[in-house]
């Protein structure tokens, strides 16, 4: 069971989403604008936020921006704007998922639970991934849910962390966007643009030159592949995958 905050100025939407989430066993708080949502987050932090994009007083963009500056709670953004540019904008703001109105409440609950599993809130299993993965100066620790580069902690969202960990655990393997949606997001159907945006954001944090990536590379006509920098013997880890070999294109 998780605590979910639903922020939407449409009372009917809040009531429907809240009823379905509670029926699925989650605790739910409600707010009708971004300011009220932030105040609730300060008083009773949520494990996940379902956030409307367009609201009076403070819209979803600003609330998401402020939450990202303060922490890393997973966010599912709701919007009547269905265009690709709007979805990409939502992901760029830091949303982990983007759902367009009108939507299926049952599907939304499934997306909530998928995101909670992937971020470790409601998961007993992490898909068999190793606890610690190292590649050169990059270390991803699944127990601490922390990644460091050259000893410095990387500021990753939960989904960015999951994506990076997945790639490091499978060096040299090319994945399509659909495969990444299924294996990292847990979706069989989804918007491939979320993968594109998250790959770009991860590159900005792990590559010396994100415009010319050498670690998280594009495989034209397929998707993406992790090219390891070289083996490093990891001390003290119980379960470790060594990123110690690169495969060809």
Architecture overview:
- With 249 residues, the chain is an alpha/beta fold.
- The protein folds into 2 domains: 3-118, 3-Layer(aba) Sandwich (Rossmann fold), CATH 3.40.50; 132-242, Arc Repressor Mutant, subunit A (Orthogonal Bundle), CATH 1.10.10.
- 37% of the residues lie in helices and 21% in strands.
- The chain has helices spanning 11-23, 34-43, 60-70, 84-93, 105-118, 158-169, 177-185, 193-206; strands spanning 3-7, 27-31, 48-52, 75-79, 97-100, 132-135, 138-141, 146-149, 152-153, 174-176, 216-219, 223-226, 240-242.
- It has a 5-stranded parallel beta sheet with strand order 2-1-3-4-5, with helices on both faces. Strands 9-8-7-6-13 form a 5-stranded mixed beta sheet, with helices on one face. It has a 3-stranded antiparallel beta sheet with strand order 10-12-11.
- Helix 1 (11-23) crosses helix 5 and helix 2 (34-43) packs parallel to helix 3.
- The protein is globular, with a radius of gyration of 18 Å.
- The N and C termini lie far apart (43 Å).
* Secondary structure category: alpha/beta
Shape: globular
Helix content: 25-40%
Number of helical segments with 4 or more residues: 8
Q: Supply the CATH superfamily name of the largest domain.
A: Response regulator
Strand and helix order: EHEHEHEHEHEEEEHEHHEEE
* Euclidean distance between termini CA atoms: 43 Å
How many DSSP E strands? 13
Indicate the mean pLDDT. Answer: 83
Radius of gyration based on Cα positions = 18 Å
Strand content: 15-25%
Oligomer: single chain
**Poorly predicted runs:** 122-126, 232-249
